[in-house]
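Example 3.2
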Amino acid sequence: MSLPRQGCQSLSADFALLLESHLRPGSLMAIVRSFYCDESGKFLDKRVTTFCGLCASTSALERFENRWKEQLRRAELPYLTMKEALQADRKLSPVIPKQSIKERIEVLKPFAACLAETFEFGVVMAVKVEAFRRMSGRVKRQVSGGENPVYFSFLNSMLLVGRHALDDDKVSMICDDDQQTAETFLGLYRRLKNFPEADCQKFCSITFADDMVFSPLQAADMLASLARMQSELEFYGKPYDYEPLFEYLAEREGPKYIRWAIGFFGESKFAKLEFNWKPRQRD
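Structure, written as tokens:
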């Protein structure tokens, strides 16, 4: 899978400014951090795609692992996958039978609380595929390196983490292993890391891992799955049964620890992005 060199060489950090950030005042303490990422929805057969990431220090990850695995033991689950967990009309485990949506939400709430109360920083990127597709090919190459909007989301996620981490931070990026995207993710990572204006020199590694083994990737899967359903509501007005769970997870008030950076990219944001790009092309 080749990566268009022209697009990656001319990447700009400016397009991440279209995100809606909900960050509490203050900076992250300088330390080694891990950023776990997952996507939901393929652009060839879905109206929206999401790419989400969760960032935490080593000590926070230890707290997360302990709490998450405790919930897995209580639920008698070897791991949590949202593809199965969201099917409330099916038995999920020996102690979680077929049940109502409301009952299944209550089962999943402790997992959502674990995510929100232990991770420090969360990124939610949702893209309306048709709106991305209508942008000019030149702009798409420059902001994503190709036709797949998940690469646009991947780049924005790196830019956001690079921007909000401290200069002394070292960030390790761990992506759910997907043969269709891993090679391009690696190419984009290397080039953005070496792009001075992007402030991504803080990244020290990228790896691809099995979400059945790594609990933080299961949390990223939870976030990405719920965000994709929420984006269907945002873009198309399509209601979904698990909206209370997304609201519980993403609630900005209260004692929850996580800070959010959220971007829902539809027609207006992509039109603004393309408009802002044109002056640079005439220079």
